[in-house]
Design goal:
This protein has about 475 residues and is an all-alpha fold. It has helices spanning about 5-35, 45-75, 85-105, 120-145, 150-165, 175-210, 215-235, 250-280, 285-305, 310-320, 320-345, 360-395, 400-405, 405-430, 445-450, 460-465. The longest helix has about 35 residues, at about 175-210. The chain is built from 16 helices and no strands. The chain is globular, with a radius of gyration of 22 Å. The chain binds protoporphyrin IX containing FE (HEM) (2 copies) and fe (ii) ion.
Length: about 475
Amino acid sequence: MRYRSQAVAYWYFAVAMVLFGLQLVFGLLSAAKYLGPDPLLYILPFDVTKVIHTNLLIVWVLTGFMGATYWMVPDESRTELHSVKLAYVQLVLWVIMGVTAIIGYLFRWGTGNKLLEQPLPHKIVIVIVMLMFLYNVGMTIKKSGRFTTTEGVLLLGIGSAALLYLPALLHYENYTVSIYYRWWTIHLWVEGVWEMIQGAFLAYLLIRLSGADREVMEKWLYVIVGLVFFAGILGTAHHYYWVGVPAYWLPIGGFFSALEPLALVGMAVYAYSAMRRSGMSHPNTLALHWTIGSALFTLFGAGLLGLAHTWPSVNKWTHGTLITAMHGHAAFYGAYAMIVLAMISYALPSMTHGRREQGSAVGYWAFWLQLAGMFGMTLSFATAGIGQVYLERILGLGYLDTQLKIQVHFVMLVATASVFAVGVGLFIWDFFRYRPRFEVEPPSDVERGVDVPPPTSSASAERYA
Ligand code: HEM
Ligand code: HEM
Ligand SMILES: [Fe+2]
Protein backbone atom coordinates (compact mmCIF):
# COMPACT_ATOMS: atom_id res chain seq x y z
CA MET A 1 0.00 0.00 0.00
CA ARG A 2 1.49 3.33 -1.02
CA TYR A 3 -1.25 5.58 0.36
CA ARG A 4 -2.96 5.26 3.74
CA SER A 5 -6.42 5.93 2.33
CA GLN A 6 -6.20 2.87 0.06
CA ALA A 7 -7.18 0.89 3.18
CA VAL A 8 -10.78 1.84 2.33
CA ALA A 9 -10.61 -0.68 -0.52
CA TYR A 10 -10.12 -3.57 1.90
CA TRP A 11 -13.54 -3.05 3.50
CA TYR A 12 -15.27 -2.76 0.15
CA PHE A 13 -13.60 -6.01 -0.95
CA ALA A 14 -14.56 -7.72 2.32
CA VAL A 15 -18.24 -6.79 1.81
CA ALA A 16 -18.05 -7.97 -1.81
CA MET A 17 -16.71 -11.35 -0.65
CA VAL A 18 -19.54 -11.91 1.81
CA LEU A 19 -22.20 -10.97 -0.76
CA PHE A 20 -20.54 -13.18 -3.41
CA GLY A 21 -20.83 -16.16 -1.07
CA LEU A 22 -24.47 -15.34 -0.36
CA GLN A 23 -25.19 -14.99 -4.09
CA LEU A 24 -24.14 -18.59 -4.62
CA VAL A 25 -26.41 -19.85 -1.84
CA PHE A 26 -29.37 -18.37 -3.72
CA GLY A 27 -28.02 -19.66 -7.06
CA LEU A 28 -27.86 -23.21 -5.71
CA LEU A 29 -31.34 -22.84 -4.20
CA SER A 30 -32.67 -21.72 -7.61
CA ALA A 31 -30.96 -24.61 -9.40
CA ALA A 32 -32.25 -27.17 -6.88
CA LYS A 33 -35.82 -26.05 -7.62
CA TYR A 34 -35.47 -27.21 -11.22
CA LEU A 35 -35.01 -30.73 -9.83
CA GLY A 36 -37.83 -30.64 -7.26
CA PRO A 37 -39.61 -31.54 -5.03
CA ASP A 38 -39.38 -28.10 -3.46
CA PRO A 39 -40.03 -28.00 0.29
CA LEU A 40 -39.55 -24.20 0.27
CA LEU A 41 -42.13 -23.57 -2.47
CA TYR A 42 -44.36 -21.33 -0.34
CA ILE A 43 -41.60 -19.64 1.64
CA LEU A 44 -38.92 -19.05 -0.96
CA PRO A 45 -40.26 -19.71 -4.44
CA PHE A 46 -38.06 -19.64 -7.56
CA ASP A 47 -38.84 -16.03 -8.50
CA VAL A 48 -37.69 -14.82 -5.07
CA THR A 49 -34.47 -16.87 -5.00
CA LYS A 50 -33.61 -15.79 -8.55
CA VAL A 51 -34.20 -12.09 -7.83
CA ILE A 52 -31.99 -12.30 -4.75
CA HIS A 53 -29.36 -14.27 -6.70
CA THR A 54 -29.10 -11.70 -9.51
CA ASN A 55 -29.42 -8.62 -7.28
CA LEU A 56 -26.69 -9.86 -4.98
CA LEU A 57 -24.56 -10.34 -8.09
CA ILE A 58 -25.03 -6.74 -9.19
CA VAL A 59 -24.46 -5.38 -5.68
CA TRP A 60 -21.28 -7.35 -4.99
CA VAL A 61 -19.77 -6.62 -8.40
CA LEU A 62 -20.48 -2.88 -7.96
CA THR A 63 -19.02 -3.03 -4.44
CA GLY A 64 -15.93 -4.62 -6.00
CA PHE A 65 -15.76 -1.89 -8.66
CA MET A 66 -15.94 0.80 -5.96
CA GLY A 67 -13.26 -0.85 -3.82
CA ALA A 68 -11.01 -1.36 -6.83
CA THR A 69 -11.47 2.29 -7.83
CA TYR A 70 -10.58 3.49 -4.34
CA TRP A 71 -7.47 1.33 -4.59
CA MET A 72 -6.48 2.39 -8.10
CA VAL A 73 -7.14 6.14 -8.10
CA PRO A 74 -4.65 7.05 -5.32
CA ASP A 75 -2.09 4.83 -7.05
CA GLU A 76 -2.60 6.44 -10.44
CA SER A 77 -2.95 10.02 -9.22
CA ARG A 78 -0.25 9.56 -6.55
CA THR A 79 -2.23 11.12 -3.75
CA GLU A 80 -4.46 10.29 -0.78
CA LEU A 81 -8.23 10.05 -1.33
CA HIS A 82 -10.12 13.34 -0.98
CA SER A 83 -12.23 12.04 1.93
CA VAL A 84 -11.81 8.69 3.68
CA LYS A 85 -14.80 9.46 5.89
CA LEU A 86 -17.07 10.00 2.91
CA ALA A 87 -15.90 6.69 1.43
CA TYR A 88 -16.92 4.85 4.62
CA VAL A 89 -20.26 6.66 4.88
CA GLN A 90 -20.85 5.62 1.27
CA LEU A 91 -20.07 1.99 2.09
CA VAL A 92 -22.40 1.96 5.09
CA LEU A 93 -25.27 3.50 3.08
CA TRP A 94 -24.65 1.05 0.26
CA VAL A 95 -24.69 -1.98 2.57
CA ILE A 96 -27.88 -0.80 4.30
CA MET A 97 -29.47 -0.34 0.86
CA GLY A 98 -28.37 -3.82 -0.28
CA VAL A 99 -29.40 -5.67 2.87
CA THR A 100 -32.82 -4.02 3.15
CA ALA A 101 -33.48 -4.63 -0.56
CA ILE A 102 -32.82 -8.36 -0.08
CA ILE A 103 -35.05 -8.51 3.00
CA GLY A 104 -37.69 -6.65 0.97
CA TYR A 105 -37.54 -9.24 -1.81
CA LEU A 106 -38.23 -11.97 0.75
CA PHE A 107 -41.53 -10.16 1.38
CA ARG A 108 -42.18 -9.56 -2.34
CA TRP A 109 -41.32 -5.85 -2.15
CA GLY A 110 -39.91 -4.92 -5.55
CA THR A 111 -40.75 -3.44 -8.93
CA GLY A 112 -40.72 -6.71 -10.87
CA ASN A 113 -38.53 -5.21 -13.59
CA LYS A 114 -35.88 -7.88 -14.19
CA LEU A 115 -32.48 -6.98 -12.68
CA LEU A 116 -33.86 -3.54 -11.72
CA GLU A 117 -36.25 -4.83 -9.06
CA GLN A 118 -35.02 -2.38 -6.40
CA PRO A 119 -37.92 -0.38 -4.86
CA LEU A 120 -37.89 3.40 -5.50
CA PRO A 121 -36.41 4.43 -2.10
CA HIS A 122 -33.53 2.01 -2.72
CA LYS A 123 -33.01 3.37 -6.21
CA ILE A 124 -32.76 6.89 -4.78
CA VAL A 125 -30.14 5.72 -2.26
CA ILE A 126 -28.22 4.09 -5.13
CA VAL A 127 -28.16 7.44 -6.97
CA ILE A 128 -26.98 9.26 -3.82
CA VAL A 129 -24.24 6.67 -3.26
CA MET A 130 -23.06 6.99 -6.86
CA LEU A 131 -22.93 10.79 -6.55
CA MET A 132 -20.88 10.54 -3.33
CA PHE A 133 -18.56 8.11 -5.05
CA LEU A 134 -18.07 10.24 -8.17
CA TYR A 135 -17.54 13.37 -6.07
CA ASN A 136 -14.90 11.70 -3.91
CA VAL A 137 -12.99 10.23 -6.84
CA GLY A 138 -13.33 13.42 -8.90
CA MET A 139 -12.03 15.62 -6.06
CA THR A 140 -9.13 13.25 -5.46
CA ILE A 141 -8.02 13.54 -9.07
CA LYS A 142 -8.60 17.29 -9.15
CA LYS A 143 -6.53 17.77 -6.00
CA SER A 144 -3.64 15.75 -7.40
CA GLY A 145 -3.61 17.32 -10.84
CA ARG A 146 -2.49 13.98 -12.27
CA PHE A 147 -5.06 12.34 -14.51
CA THR A 148 -4.07 9.27 -16.54
CA THR A 149 -5.93 7.88 -19.55
CA THR A 150 -6.67 4.68 -17.63
CA GLU A 151 -8.34 6.73 -14.91
CA GLY A 152 -10.21 8.74 -17.52
CA VAL A 153 -11.73 5.61 -19.04
CA LEU A 154 -12.59 4.30 -15.57
CA LEU A 155 -14.32 7.53 -14.58
CA LEU A 156 -16.18 7.74 -17.87
CA GLY A 157 -17.39 4.18 -17.28
CA ILE A 158 -18.53 4.84 -13.70
CA GLY A 159 -20.10 8.20 -14.53
CA SER A 160 -22.02 6.78 -17.48
CA ALA A 161 -23.11 3.76 -15.44
CA ALA A 162 -24.65 6.17 -12.90
CA LEU A 163 -26.30 8.20 -15.65
CA LEU A 164 -27.72 5.12 -17.35
CA TYR A 165 -29.35 4.06 -14.09
CA LEU A 166 -31.65 7.09 -14.25
CA PRO A 167 -34.15 5.60 -16.77
CA ALA A 168 -34.63 2.79 -14.24
CA LEU A 169 -36.18 5.29 -11.82
CA LEU A 170 -39.15 5.86 -14.10
CA HIS A 171 -42.20 3.66 -14.17
CA TYR A 172 -44.16 2.89 -17.34
CA GLU A 173 -47.54 1.20 -17.45
CA ASN A 174 -47.05 0.09 -21.05
CA TYR A 175 -44.95 -3.11 -21.08
CA THR A 176 -43.31 -2.39 -24.45
CA VAL A 177 -42.21 1.07 -23.35
CA SER A 178 -41.00 -0.29 -20.03
CA ILE A 179 -38.92 -3.04 -21.68
CA TYR A 180 -37.62 -0.60 -24.28
CA TYR A 181 -36.06 1.63 -21.62
CA ARG A 182 -34.98 -1.25 -19.38
CA TRP A 183 -32.36 -2.15 -21.95
CA TRP A 184 -30.93 1.37 -21.90
CA THR A 185 -29.77 0.47 -18.43
CA ILE A 186 -29.07 -3.26 -18.61
CA HIS A 187 -27.66 -3.65 -22.11
CA LEU A 188 -25.77 -0.36 -22.16
CA TRP A 189 -24.30 -1.26 -18.80
CA VAL A 190 -22.98 -4.73 -19.56
CA GLU A 191 -22.19 -4.24 -23.24
CA GLY A 192 -21.09 -0.62 -23.03
CA VAL A 193 -20.00 1.35 -20.03
CA TRP A 194 -19.13 -1.54 -17.68
CA GLU A 195 -16.76 -2.76 -20.37
CA MET A 196 -14.94 0.56 -20.03
CA ILE A 197 -14.60 -0.14 -16.32
CA GLN A 198 -13.30 -3.63 -17.06
CA GLY A 199 -10.97 -2.22 -19.75
CA ALA A 200 -9.55 0.37 -17.36
CA PHE A 201 -8.86 -2.19 -14.60
CA LEU A 202 -7.36 -4.49 -17.21
CA ALA A 203 -5.02 -1.77 -18.48
CA TYR A 204 -4.02 -0.82 -14.92
CA LEU A 205 -3.29 -4.43 -13.99
CA LEU A 206 -1.38 -5.17 -17.18
CA ILE A 207 0.77 -2.06 -16.78
CA ARG A 208 1.56 -3.05 -13.19
CA LEU A 209 1.87 -6.80 -13.62
CA SER A 210 3.50 -7.28 -16.98
CA GLY A 211 5.54 -4.11 -17.13
CA ALA A 212 3.92 -3.27 -20.48
CA ASP A 213 4.58 0.24 -21.72
CA ARG A 214 1.92 2.59 -20.45
CA GLU A 215 1.58 4.63 -23.62
CA VAL A 216 1.07 1.59 -25.81
CA MET A 217 -1.44 0.07 -23.38
CA GLU A 218 -3.43 3.27 -23.15
CA LYS A 219 -3.56 3.70 -26.93
CA TRP A 220 -5.05 0.23 -27.25
CA LEU A 221 -7.49 1.03 -24.49
CA TYR A 222 -8.87 3.85 -26.66
CA VAL A 223 -9.31 1.49 -29.61
CA ILE A 224 -11.18 -1.09 -27.54
CA VAL A 225 -13.41 1.48 -25.90
CA GLY A 226 -14.17 2.97 -29.33
CA LEU A 227 -15.14 -0.43 -30.71
CA VAL A 228 -17.35 -1.23 -27.72
CA PHE A 229 -19.20 2.02 -28.21
CA PHE A 230 -19.52 1.74 -31.93
CA ALA A 231 -21.14 -1.70 -31.85
CA GLY A 232 -22.72 -1.67 -28.39
CA ILE A 233 -25.04 1.32 -28.74
CA LEU A 234 -27.00 0.16 -31.77
CA GLY A 235 -26.44 -3.43 -30.62
CA THR A 236 -29.06 -2.63 -27.94
CA ALA A 237 -31.59 -3.51 -30.63
CA HIS A 238 -30.81 -7.23 -30.21
CA HIS A 239 -33.21 -6.97 -27.28
CA TYR A 240 -35.91 -5.28 -29.39
CA TYR A 241 -36.69 -8.17 -31.72
CA TRP A 242 -39.85 -9.40 -30.00
CA VAL A 243 -40.97 -6.61 -27.69
CA GLY A 244 -43.46 -4.83 -29.93
CA VAL A 245 -41.32 -2.15 -31.62
CA PRO A 246 -41.00 -1.62 -35.42
CA ALA A 247 -39.37 -4.40 -37.46
CA TYR A 248 -36.45 -2.28 -38.67
CA TRP A 249 -34.77 -2.99 -35.34
CA LEU A 250 -34.22 -6.62 -36.41
CA PRO A 251 -31.46 -6.04 -39.00
CA ILE A 252 -29.98 -3.18 -36.96
CA GLY A 253 -29.80 -5.32 -33.81
CA GLY A 254 -28.44 -8.34 -35.67
CA PHE A 255 -25.74 -6.48 -37.55
CA PHE A 256 -24.37 -4.24 -34.81
CA SER A 257 -24.50 -6.77 -32.00
CA ALA A 258 -22.67 -9.27 -34.24
CA LEU A 259 -19.84 -6.70 -34.41
CA GLU A 260 -19.55 -6.48 -30.62
CA PRO A 261 -17.35 -9.56 -30.24
CA LEU A 262 -14.69 -7.77 -32.33
CA ALA A 263 -13.95 -5.47 -29.40
CA LEU A 264 -13.71 -8.51 -27.13
CA VAL A 265 -11.27 -10.24 -29.50
CA GLY A 266 -9.25 -7.01 -29.38
CA MET A 267 -9.29 -7.05 -25.59
CA ALA A 268 -8.16 -10.69 -25.32
CA VAL A 269 -5.35 -10.20 -27.86
CA TYR A 270 -4.37 -7.00 -26.02
CA ALA A 271 -4.10 -8.76 -22.68
CA TYR A 272 -2.35 -11.86 -23.96
CA SER A 273 0.16 -10.02 -26.11
CA ALA A 274 1.00 -7.57 -23.31
CA MET A 275 1.92 -10.53 -21.16
CA ARG A 276 3.89 -12.25 -23.94
CA ARG A 277 5.78 -9.16 -25.03
CA SER A 278 6.73 -7.74 -21.70
CA GLY A 279 7.19 -10.91 -19.71
CA MET A 280 6.54 -11.00 -16.01
CA SER A 281 8.23 -8.30 -14.07
CA HIS A 282 5.94 -8.62 -11.06
CA PRO A 283 5.88 -11.56 -8.64
CA ASN A 284 2.06 -11.64 -8.30
CA THR A 285 1.38 -14.40 -10.84
CA LEU A 286 -1.96 -15.22 -9.23
CA ALA A 287 -3.32 -11.75 -10.06
CA LEU A 288 -1.97 -12.20 -13.60
CA HIS A 289 -3.95 -15.46 -13.91
CA TRP A 290 -7.14 -13.62 -12.98
CA THR A 291 -6.33 -10.70 -15.29
CA ILE A 292 -5.58 -12.69 -18.45
CA GLY A 293 -8.33 -15.14 -17.44
CA SER A 294 -10.88 -12.33 -17.36
CA ALA A 295 -10.02 -11.15 -20.88
CA LEU A 296 -10.12 -14.69 -22.30
CA PHE A 297 -13.29 -15.80 -20.48
CA THR A 298 -15.05 -12.62 -21.62
CA LEU A 299 -14.24 -13.52 -25.20
CA PHE A 300 -15.76 -16.95 -24.61
CA GLY A 301 -18.82 -16.02 -22.52
CA ALA A 302 -19.77 -12.65 -23.99
CA GLY A 303 -18.19 -12.79 -27.44
CA LEU A 304 -18.67 -16.36 -28.60
CA LEU A 305 -21.74 -17.30 -26.57
CA GLY A 306 -23.30 -13.89 -27.20
CA LEU A 307 -22.81 -14.29 -30.93
CA ALA A 308 -24.33 -17.75 -30.69
CA HIS A 309 -27.84 -16.32 -30.12
CA THR A 310 -27.75 -12.71 -31.23
CA TRP A 311 -28.92 -13.16 -34.82
CA PRO A 312 -32.73 -12.68 -35.08
CA SER A 313 -33.26 -15.98 -36.93
CA VAL A 314 -31.60 -17.84 -34.04
CA ASN A 315 -32.92 -15.63 -31.24
CA LYS A 316 -36.54 -16.23 -32.26
CA TRP A 317 -36.03 -19.79 -30.99
CA THR A 318 -33.69 -19.21 -28.06
CA HIS A 319 -35.09 -15.96 -26.59
CA GLY A 320 -35.70 -16.20 -22.85
CA THR A 321 -34.62 -19.84 -22.58
CA LEU A 322 -31.79 -21.49 -20.68
CA ILE A 323 -29.56 -20.48 -23.61
CA THR A 324 -29.83 -16.94 -22.23
CA ALA A 325 -28.82 -18.21 -18.78
CA MET A 326 -25.85 -20.05 -20.37
CA HIS A 327 -24.55 -16.83 -21.88
CA GLY A 328 -25.49 -14.62 -18.90
CA HIS A 329 -23.40 -16.74 -16.49
CA ALA A 330 -20.27 -17.08 -18.62
CA ALA A 331 -20.31 -13.43 -19.74
CA PHE A 332 -20.95 -11.89 -16.31
CA TYR A 333 -18.44 -14.12 -14.62
CA GLY A 334 -15.64 -13.59 -17.16
CA ALA A 335 -16.05 -9.86 -17.58
CA TYR A 336 -17.06 -8.56 -14.19
CA ALA A 337 -16.55 -11.18 -11.50
CA MET A 338 -13.08 -12.16 -12.70
CA ILE A 339 -11.84 -8.57 -13.11
CA VAL A 340 -12.90 -7.78 -9.53
CA LEU A 341 -11.17 -10.94 -8.29
CA ALA A 342 -8.07 -9.84 -10.27
CA MET A 343 -8.01 -6.43 -8.58
CA ILE A 344 -8.48 -8.06 -5.17
CA SER A 345 -5.67 -10.55 -5.83
CA TYR A 346 -3.39 -7.71 -6.91
CA ALA A 347 -4.14 -5.38 -3.99
CA LEU A 348 -4.45 -7.86 -1.13
CA PRO A 349 -0.81 -8.87 -0.45
CA SER A 350 0.02 -5.29 0.52
CA MET A 351 -3.05 -4.99 2.77
CA THR A 352 -2.64 -8.21 4.77
CA HIS A 353 -0.10 -9.85 7.10
CA GLY A 354 1.71 -12.87 5.70
CA ARG A 355 0.02 -13.19 2.31
CA ARG A 356 2.68 -13.98 -0.30
CA GLU A 357 2.82 -11.89 -3.48
CA GLN A 358 2.91 -15.01 -5.64
CA GLY A 359 -0.31 -16.33 -4.13
CA SER A 360 -0.77 -19.58 -2.27
CA ALA A 361 -1.81 -23.09 -3.30
CA VAL A 362 -5.29 -22.25 -1.96
CA GLY A 363 -5.38 -19.23 -4.25
CA TYR A 364 -4.57 -21.34 -7.32
CA TRP A 365 -7.09 -24.02 -6.37
CA ALA A 366 -9.67 -21.25 -6.03
CA PHE A 367 -8.83 -20.04 -9.54
CA TRP A 368 -8.90 -23.42 -11.32
CA LEU A 369 -11.93 -24.83 -9.48
CA GLN A 370 -13.93 -21.72 -10.30
CA LEU A 371 -12.88 -21.82 -13.92
CA ALA A 372 -13.65 -25.53 -14.30
CA GLY A 373 -16.92 -25.17 -12.38
CA MET A 374 -18.13 -22.18 -14.39
CA PHE A 375 -17.19 -23.90 -17.66
CA GLY A 376 -19.20 -26.95 -16.57
CA MET A 377 -22.15 -24.77 -15.53
CA THR A 378 -22.08 -23.06 -18.91
CA LEU A 379 -22.17 -26.45 -20.65
CA SER A 380 -25.02 -27.60 -18.40
CA PHE A 381 -27.12 -24.53 -19.21
CA ALA A 382 -26.21 -24.92 -22.89
CA THR A 383 -27.24 -28.58 -23.15
CA ALA A 384 -30.40 -27.93 -21.14
CA GLY A 385 -31.14 -24.93 -23.34
CA ILE A 386 -30.67 -26.78 -26.61
CA GLY A 387 -33.00 -29.53 -25.36
CA GLN A 388 -35.53 -26.93 -24.21
CA VAL A 389 -35.51 -25.05 -27.54
CA TYR A 390 -35.97 -28.26 -29.52
CA LEU A 391 -38.69 -29.82 -27.37
CA GLU A 392 -40.63 -26.72 -26.39
CA ARG A 393 -40.16 -24.28 -29.22
CA ILE A 394 -39.75 -26.62 -32.21
CA LEU A 395 -41.79 -29.70 -31.25
CA GLY A 396 -44.30 -27.66 -29.24
CA LEU A 397 -44.17 -29.68 -25.99
CA GLY A 398 -45.49 -27.86 -22.90
CA TYR A 399 -43.06 -25.92 -20.70
CA LEU A 400 -43.28 -28.24 -17.69
CA ASP A 401 -43.18 -31.45 -19.77
CA THR A 402 -40.02 -30.14 -21.36
CA GLN A 403 -38.48 -29.35 -17.98
CA LEU A 404 -39.04 -32.95 -16.88
CA LYS A 405 -37.21 -34.24 -19.95
CA ILE A 406 -34.12 -32.13 -19.38
CA GLN A 407 -33.63 -32.95 -15.68
CA VAL A 408 -30.30 -34.65 -16.26
CA HIS A 409 -28.78 -31.33 -17.28
CA PHE A 410 -29.84 -29.79 -13.99
CA VAL A 411 -28.12 -32.62 -12.12
CA MET A 412 -25.01 -31.67 -14.10
CA LEU A 413 -25.66 -28.00 -13.25
CA VAL A 414 -25.80 -28.67 -9.51
CA ALA A 415 -22.68 -30.87 -9.68
CA THR A 416 -20.58 -28.35 -11.61
CA ALA A 417 -21.96 -25.43 -9.59
CA SER A 418 -20.80 -27.24 -6.45
CA VAL A 419 -17.26 -27.40 -7.87
CA PHE A 420 -17.55 -23.69 -8.64
CA ALA A 421 -18.83 -22.95 -5.13
CA VAL A 422 -15.86 -24.78 -3.57
CA GLY A 423 -13.57 -22.56 -5.68
CA VAL A 424 -15.39 -19.44 -4.46
CA GLY A 425 -15.33 -20.76 -0.87
CA LEU A 426 -11.54 -21.15 -1.12
CA PHE A 427 -11.15 -17.63 -2.52
CA ILE A 428 -13.20 -16.20 0.35
CA TRP A 429 -11.23 -18.22 2.89
CA ASP A 430 -7.95 -17.10 1.33
CA PHE A 431 -9.21 -13.52 1.61
CA PHE A 432 -10.11 -13.62 5.28
CA ARG A 433 -7.44 -15.94 6.66
CA TYR A 434 -4.79 -13.18 6.72
CA ARG A 435 -5.21 -10.30 9.14
CA PRO A 436 -5.47 -6.89 7.49
CA ARG A 437 -2.54 -4.47 7.83
CA PHE A 438 -2.60 -0.91 6.68
CA GLU A 439 1.00 0.25 6.74
CA VAL A 440 2.25 2.55 4.04
CA GLU A 441 5.24 1.23 2.11
CA PRO A 442 7.37 2.88 -0.55
CA PRO A 443 6.95 1.31 -4.00
CA SER A 444 9.17 -1.70 -4.67
CA ASP A 445 11.95 -1.46 -7.27
CA VAL A 446 9.85 -3.51 -9.62
CA GLU A 447 6.85 -1.23 -9.28
CA ARG A 448 9.02 1.84 -9.70
CA GLY A 449 10.51 0.33 -12.84
CA VAL A 450 7.07 -0.52 -14.13
CA ASP A 451 5.44 2.80 -13.53
CA VAL A 452 8.22 5.16 -14.52
CA PRO A 453 9.52 4.48 -18.01
CA PRO A 454 13.29 4.73 -18.61
CA PRO A 455 14.52 8.25 -19.42
CA THR A 456 15.33 7.26 -23.02
CA SER A 457 11.66 7.65 -23.83
CA SER A 458 11.65 11.40 -23.22
CA ALA A 459 7.96 12.07 -23.79
CA SER A 460 6.84 9.49 -21.26
CA ALA A 461 9.57 10.46 -18.82
CA GLU A 462 8.30 14.00 -18.86
CA ARG A 463 4.71 12.97 -18.48
CA TYR A 464 5.20 10.54 -15.65
CA ALA A 465 8.17 11.87 -13.76
C1 HEM B 1 -19.67 -8.70 -20.80
C2 HEM B 1 -20.59 -8.65 -21.65
C3 HEM B 1 -21.95 -9.25 -21.52
C4 HEM B 1 -22.67 -9.60 -20.41
C5 HEM B 1 -22.26 -9.47 -18.94
C6 HEM B 1 -23.94 -10.13 -20.87
C7 HEM B 1 -24.96 -10.58 -20.03
C8 HEM B 1 -26.24 -10.88 -20.46
C9 HEM B 1 -27.36 -11.16 -19.60
C10 HEM B 1 -27.31 -11.19 -18.06
C11 HEM B 1 -28.45 -11.37 -20.38
C12 HEM B 1 -29.86 -11.66 -19.90
C13 HEM B 1 -30.52 -10.36 -19.70
C14 HEM B 1 -31.98 -10.39 -19.39
O1 HEM B 1 -32.70 -11.21 -19.97
O2 HEM B 1 -32.40 -9.58 -18.56
C15 HEM B 1 -28.01 -11.21 -21.76
C16 HEM B 1 -28.83 -11.32 -22.86
C17 HEM B 1 -28.37 -11.32 -24.15
N1 HEM B 1 -27.07 -11.13 -24.59
FE1 HEM B 1 -25.52 -10.65 -23.44
N2 HEM B 1 -23.96 -10.10 -22.24
C18 HEM B 1 -22.76 -9.58 -22.68
C19 HEM B 1 -22.37 -9.41 -23.99
C20 HEM B 1 -23.09 -9.83 -25.10
C21 HEM B 1 -22.63 -9.78 -26.47
C22 HEM B 1 -21.27 -9.25 -26.91
C23 HEM B 1 -23.63 -10.28 -27.25
C24 HEM B 1 -23.69 -10.49 -28.74
C25 HEM B 1 -22.70 -10.74 -29.50
C26 HEM B 1 -24.73 -10.62 -26.36
C27 HEM B 1 -25.96 -11.12 -26.77
C28 HEM B 1 -27.06 -11.25 -25.95
C29 HEM B 1 -28.40 -11.52 -26.43
C30 HEM B 1 -28.84 -11.71 -27.88
C31 HEM B 1 -29.23 -11.56 -25.30
C32 HEM B 1 -30.74 -11.79 -25.27
C33 HEM B 1 -31.07 -13.20 -25.03
C34 HEM B 1 -32.55 -13.46 -25.14
O3 HEM B 1 -33.13 -13.10 -26.16
O4 HEM B 1 -33.13 -14.06 -24.23
N3 HEM B 1 -24.37 -10.35 -25.07
N4 HEM B 1 -26.66 -10.93 -21.78
C1 HEM C 1 -23.34 -21.82 -7.40
C2 HEM C 1 -23.33 -21.18 -8.51
C3 HEM C 1 -24.55 -20.75 -9.28
C4 HEM C 1 -25.72 -21.41 -9.52
C5 HEM C 1 -26.12 -22.79 -9.06
C6 HEM C 1 -26.54 -20.54 -10.32
C7 HEM C 1 -27.84 -20.87 -10.75
C8 HEM C 1 -28.69 -20.01 -11.40
C9 HEM C 1 -30.03 -20.33 -11.80
C10 HEM C 1 -30.71 -21.67 -11.59
C11 HEM C 1 -30.56 -19.24 -12.39
C12 HEM C 1 -31.95 -19.08 -12.97
C13 HEM C 1 -31.96 -19.42 -14.42
C14 HEM C 1 -33.34 -19.31 -15.00
O1 HEM C 1 -33.93 -18.23 -14.98
O2 HEM C 1 -33.85 -20.33 -15.45
C15 HEM C 1 -29.52 -18.21 -12.39
C16 HEM C 1 -29.66 -16.97 -12.95
C17 HEM C 1 -28.60 -16.10 -13.15
N1 HEM C 1 -27.33 -16.22 -12.60
FE1 HEM C 1 -26.63 -17.78 -11.58
N2 HEM C 1 -25.87 -19.38 -10.56
C18 HEM C 1 -24.65 -19.46 -9.94
C19 HEM C 1 -23.65 -18.50 -9.96
C20 HEM C 1 -23.69 -17.36 -10.71
C21 HEM C 1 -22.58 -16.47 -10.92
C22 HEM C 1 -21.19 -16.64 -10.32
C23 HEM C 1 -23.02 -15.49 -11.76
C24 HEM C 1 -22.26 -14.33 -12.34
C25 HEM C 1 -21.06 -14.02 -12.13
C26 HEM C 1 -24.42 -15.74 -12.04
C27 HEM C 1 -25.22 -14.96 -12.84
C28 HEM C 1 -26.56 -15.19 -13.10
C29 HEM C 1 -27.36 -14.35 -13.96
C30 HEM C 1 -26.89 -13.09 -14.69
C31 HEM C 1 -28.67 -14.92 -13.99
C32 HEM C 1 -29.88 -14.42 -14.77
C33 HEM C 1 -29.84 -15.09 -16.11
C34 HEM C 1 -31.09 -14.90 -16.94
O3 HEM C 1 -32.07 -14.36 -16.47
O4 HEM C 1 -31.09 -15.34 -18.07
N3 HEM C 1 -24.79 -16.88 -11.38
N4 HEM C 1 -28.38 -18.71 -11.78
FE1 LIG D 1 -27.37 -6.98 -24.97
